[in-house]
């Protein structure tokens, strides 16, 4: 877990957590694929089937995978991570092939950031599932996952309002991913293989946290 201090030491620590924001972002592989597939998994499908396996036979980055987001196709990895809700420090995360479903990695991220009972966990509607909400309930965590409309059934006004509030909180994790990609060049990996990509992410996240801590201390 990437954390400066625990919640019981607010005077000495730089990070006092009130909750965590979970999200995922795609990074391109260090290698260009030799062949573009015609059929690609769609990210965050409404039926949560975005994790369809795709076999790549024509690249030396064998653990990377294809994913389509909107009109663009990506070949690489997906970073599943969380930041704290107060300052946007990266708390932890891991890498998977790009076609891995966000929903299926939610619990793993919770375990990595060691979320404590009473904290709030925020995430977009891509993480909305009965299992994920049940896990939050069992662990005593406040449910901040955005609501997803069912087919032919719109969200109620109260759920729409909840989504707007959650969306405003989620901006911190999106800014963290944006900084890692723009400021640290992590829009594309430097190494091959999931393990090395994950290590690259963690090192970048540590540098990001250290810089943020220095800037925060100077204020």
Task: Describe the model.
- Helix content is 33%, strand content 20%.
- The longest helix has 25 residues, at 194-218.
- The protein has 219 residues and is an alpha/beta fold.
- The protein has helices at 102-113, 130-138, 157-169, 171-183, 194-218, and strands at 19-28, 65-69, 72-84, 90-97, 120-123, 142-145.
- Strands 1, 2, 3, 4, 5 and 6 form a 6-stranded mixed beta sheet that branches.
- A hairpin with a 2-residue loop joins strand 2 (65-69) and strand 3 (72-84).
Separation, N- and C-terminal Cα atoms: 25 Å
How is the main sheet built? 6 strands, mixed
Our estimate of the beta-strand percent is 15-25%
The level of helicity is 25-40%
The assembly state of the depicted protein chains is single chain
Low-confidence stretches: 3-16
Helix and strand sequence = EEEEHEHEHHH
**With helices defined by DSSP (H or I, 4 residues minimum), what is the helix count?**
5
| Total beta-strand segments | 6
> How many whole angstroms does the radius of gyration measure?
18 Å
Structural class: alpha/beta
Topology:
Elements: E1 19-28, E2 65-69, E3 72-84, E4 90-97, H1 102-113, E5 120-123, H2 130-138, E6 142-145, H3 157-169, H4 171-183, H5 194-218
Parallel strand pairs: 1-5, 5-6
Antiparallel strand pairs: 1-3, 2-3, 3-4
């Amino acid at each position: 877990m990437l954390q400066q201090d625990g919640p019981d030491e607010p005077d000495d620590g730089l990070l006092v957590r009130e909750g965590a924001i979970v999200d995922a972002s795609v990074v391109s592989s260090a290698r260009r694929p030799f062949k573009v597939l015609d059929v690609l998994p769609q990210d965050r499908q409404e039926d949560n089937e975005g994790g369809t396996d795709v076999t790549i036979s024509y690249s030396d980055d064998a653990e990377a995978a294809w994913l389509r987001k909107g009109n663009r196709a990506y070949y690489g990895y997906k970073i599943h991570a969380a930041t704290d809700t107060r300052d946007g420090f990266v708390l932890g995360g891991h890498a998977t092939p790009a076609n891995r479903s966000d929903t299926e990695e939610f619990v793993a991220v919770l375990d990595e950031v060691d979320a404590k009972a009473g904290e709030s966990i925020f995430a977009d509607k891509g993480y909305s599932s009965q299992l994920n909400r049940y896990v939050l309930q069992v662990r005593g965590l406040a449910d901040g996952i955005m609501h997803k409309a069912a087919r032919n059934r719109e969200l109620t006004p109260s759920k729409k309002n909840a989504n707007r509030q959650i969306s405003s909180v989620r901006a911190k994790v999106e800014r963290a991913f944006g900084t890692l990609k723009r400021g640290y060049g992590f829009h594309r990996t430097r190494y091959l293989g999931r393990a090395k990509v994950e290590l690259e992410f963690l090192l970048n996240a540590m540098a990001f946290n250290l810089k943020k801590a220095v800037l925060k201390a100077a204020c």
